[in-house]
Amino acid sequence: MSRDIFIGGAWPYSNYFLHVGHLASLLPGDILAKYYRGKGDRVIYVSGSDCHGTPITERARKENTTPEKVANYYHEEFVKTFNNVGFEYDLYTDTMTDYHNKYVQKQFSRLLDNGWIYEKVEPAVYCEKCNKFLSDREIVGKCPNCGGVSTGDQCDECLASLDSSEVLDKHCKICGSDTVSKDNKHLYFKLTAFEKELQQLIIDRKNLWRKNAVGEAQKYIDTGLRDRAATRQLDWGVDVPVKGYEDKKIYVWIEAVMGYLSAGQRVAEERGIDFDKFMSDNNKNLRTYFVHGKDNIPFHTTIFPALVSGLEYNYRLPDYIVSCAYVNLNDEKMSKSKGNLLTVNELLERFPKDTLRFYFTYLGPETHDTSCSIEEMIQCHNKFLVGQLGNFVNRNLGFINKKFEGIIKEGIVDKDIKEKTRKAYDSIGEAIEKAEFRNALSQILEYISDANKYYDSSEPWVKVKNEDLTEFNNITYTCVYIMANIANLIKPFMGDASSKIKDMLSFKEYRWEEEEPKGDITIKDLDILYNRIDE
Ligand SMILES: [Zn+2]
Ligand SMILES: [Zn+2]
Asked: What is the pLDDT of residues 196-239, one digit of tens each?
């Protein structure tokens, strides 16, 4: 029976290019989607660019342009990069679309109607000359810790995060006037009301969530949940659908995370699927995966589930939290400020996309932080992709091209190898479903390595020399059978090689199931899977 699979990839923030940290943490989503599609399951795999929030408005101000232009520029870049690295979302959208804005406003009103959002009046920073409440970034003042210049929420010098009430000597960044304190109203989300339910969720999902997710979620609850402001003094974001809130926007944390639902709903509508039924907790065929970096854990394990509960649609709370640890570069933390942030575009100039997908899965920051390096990427490419996978396919087919004009005669496939192949689908599939991608990949490598051993120990070239063509055809056909199945097994990880093998040998379209070639096969233009990269 076909299953329903929802996969939410994290929404990258649209103010800089995608870097290797994004790639490592988001790849699992695409591997899952390709795998489940191959199983014939009904998959909804969505993500998009997170385009609101202050860093984008800040950047726009510095570059003398609009937040929309900044966000759009990087959004377009993300689309290209994801495409170049082989991602196949069912929908990759952004938070600026009409659809998302309307969806979020509707759900916001619903949370309000359900009693999970309330109004709170607090003193806030006001400029009497500009006649408005100032956003954090419109406030300039002195840091209470170091005396340096700070905005309303962060010190520029010691980088401490601040609350605008602590900042000293506040004045308006727009007109330079001193500010006054004046009562301002905001809407708050009652996160505290969900504590019991969230605690239960952590217990229920103990074996499905990554260890770091269970730990971080527990820590987040143990330090004490607090109700969160749901509106913010800003002019860039989704409008608050409540009268009297025209000068504010919905806080980005509540809005961006709802993107999973708005994008999922949209895909469902386009395909004629009832999204409420699909996502229903009563849908026993449903599995949901949320894929992101470990810094995003609290959002996906507590805040998002609380919102979903508060919406009262009876949607499933996250089944699998696939939260990646960090990837460092040459054992150093990467950051924009250090200038050592390795972008995916830079890597794509030097490596095939298969290599990047392979390497960042092989590196597998699944349980702890890891470090990547260009040298290791090259070594991995040469050792595994060229030396193992490419070698098996190309020396087999090269030999047949040379000796038999590219015609592979039908033979009998080795029984043990068939048995092993069927088992490989089950056991690799199981690892993928449990989000153990390193494990899955190492089983694939073992399958390929065994294939090379089979070829070497069978010595088909000796059979040709001895004119034992029946035996030669059996060995060769067994190798072709292995290739057909390698092409399926590697598809979620290394799509280019999979397609090349399938094209050369006219195999069936990818499915996650044993493939048995039939009849004689003619090799179409022999293609080298991968070229060596000089170290
Ligand atoms: Zn002012
Ligand atoms: Zn400071």
From this structure: 999 999 999 999 999 999 999 999 999 999 999 999 988 899 99
223 Cβ contact list (under 8 Å, min separation 6): none
Distance 178 CA to ligand 2 centre (A): 20
Architecture of domain 373-522: Orthogonal Bundle (1.10)
Say how many Å lie between the CA of residue 302 and the centre of ligand 1: 38
Instruction: Please state the domain extents for the chain.
Output: 4-112+203-220+252-321, 117-189, 373-522
119/121 Cα distance (integer angstroms): 7
Enclosing H/E stretch for 24: helix 20-38
The CA 534 to ligand 2 mean position distance, Å, reads 48
The CA 436 to ligand 1 mean position distance, Å, reads: 54
Taking CA 25 as the corner, what is the angle to CA 19 and CA 28, rounded to the nearest 5 degrees? 130
Q: Which amino acid is at 486?
A: I
Q: How far is the CA of 179 from the centre of ligand 1 (A)?
A: 8
User: From the CA of 154, how far away is ligand 1's center (Å)?
Assistant: 19
Q: Which CATH number does 4-112+203-220+252-321 carry?
A: 3.40.50.620
Residue 332 has pLDDT above 90, yes or no: no
Taking residues 424-451, report their average pLDDT.
97
pLDDT digits (tens, 9 = 90+) for 414-431: 999 999 999 999 999 999
Q: What are the percentages of helix, strand and coil residues in the chain, rounded to 5?
A: 50, 15, 35
User: How many CB atoms sit inside 10 A of residue 132's CB?
Assistant: 15
CATH architecture of 117-189: Beta Complex (2.170)
